[in-house]
Write a structure and sequence with these properties.
320 residues, 74% helix, 0% strand, globular
């Protein structure tokens, strides 16, 4: 059990988590800048996962936790890592196509998918309150995606919009699967070992796809200094935020304070407007508030405290 006497005061813990969430949002905005300058998706994933894996490997080597695992654990670890690799590729594919804040709002549906997956695989059924909150989240998401206006005005939507939304949904489902595996099959592993091995699987998967030429243009490098700078910012923000989250986690009382991390899509909307000129309408802001409010309330629902809070506690795993 966590020693609350060693935890940061709650206002400080919330401030730290909100700051880290902003850094993660900045990582995705920087990724969009790099992609617009010609950088390939696999280059971003390789840089991000490679540097972070090295940091985590150093932490593991400094500690006493063994990297050796049983064959069964390795199989589940590889599957979890591949799920995170899919999530990483899909979320970067999404932010390359649609506004960053909108993409992160859709990806933040992972706790909803986790609750449903847990139920389908024999876990507790969602309560009536949880189902109502899920309906609120979906309604808010429809507003964010501007679906009512598209239907009422019979407005054509470009292909990038549809593809971006699909990539977001796949990313959310893939991460929910990774969380289910982590919560139900890898819970006994030390956190830093699990995160390190996940990062290594992501790196190897991206390298294999690049080597096989499976994703055309995936290994393209930026064309200008602006793209290289964005790529460096991406790696630094992600690596620093991930490492800080992992190192400080024992003192952050994640179980109570993790909802502060949901400021990420809000920060992404603001940074997307300031850096990329991406704008959203007033109705979309209302929809975003519905989505975030529903997710925060769902995280506090007693009937789903286990899986939903488990997903929030694994924010470090999410950043793989």
């Amino acid at each position: 059990m966590q020693d609350h006497n060693s935890s940061f005061p709650r206002p400080l813990a919330l401030l730290i988590l909100a700051t880290l969430a902003c850094a993660f949002a900045g990582n995705h905005v920087a990724a969009r800048v790099a992609f617009d300058d010609g950088a390939g998706l696999l280059v971003a994933i390789l840089c991000r996962s490679g540097i972070t894996a090295l940091v985590l490997l150093g932490l593991v080597m400094l500690g006493s936790d063994p990297l050796r695992q049983t064959a069964t654990t390795w199989r589940w670890q590889i599957v979890a890592g591949l799920c995170v690799a899919v999530q990483s590729y899909c979320i970067y594919s999404a932010v390359a196509r649609i506004p960053v804040g909108v993409a992160l709002l859709v990806v933040n549906l992972s706790p909803v998918f986790l609750a449903l997956i847990t139920w389908l695989l024999g876990g507790p059924a969602p309560t009536r309150r949880a189902l109502g909150l899920m309906a609120l989240i979906i309604l808010g998401l429809l507003v964010v995606l501007d679906v009512p206006r598209i239907i009422l005005q019979a407005q054509a939507v470009n292909r990038d919009w549809y593809e971006g939304v699909v990539f977001c949904l796949v990313a959310a489902v893939a991460f929910a699967c990774a969380l289910w595996i982590t919560h139900n099959r890898l819970a006994g592993m030390p956190g830093k070992v699990r995160s390190c091995l996940t990062m290594l699987v992501v790196f190897v998967a991206a390298a294999a796809l690049g080597g096989a030429g499976a994703i055309p243009g995936g290994l393209e490098i930026p064309r200008s200094l602006a793209g290289w700078s964005a790529l460096c910012v991406l790696v630094m923000l992600y690596g620093a935020a991930f490492s800080a989250l992992f190192i400080l986690m024992p003192r952050l009382d994640i179980t109570r304070n993790a909802p502060a991390m949901n400021v990420e899509p809000v920060a992404a909307l603001l940074l997307g407007w300031l850096v990329l000129g991406q704008q959203v309408g007033y109705l979309q802001i209302v929809g975003a508030s519905m989505v975030l409010g529903g997710i925060l309330l769902l995280a506090q629902t007693r009937g789903h405290q286990g899986p939903v809070h488990g997903s929030l506690r694994q924010k470090n795993g999410k950043r793989c």
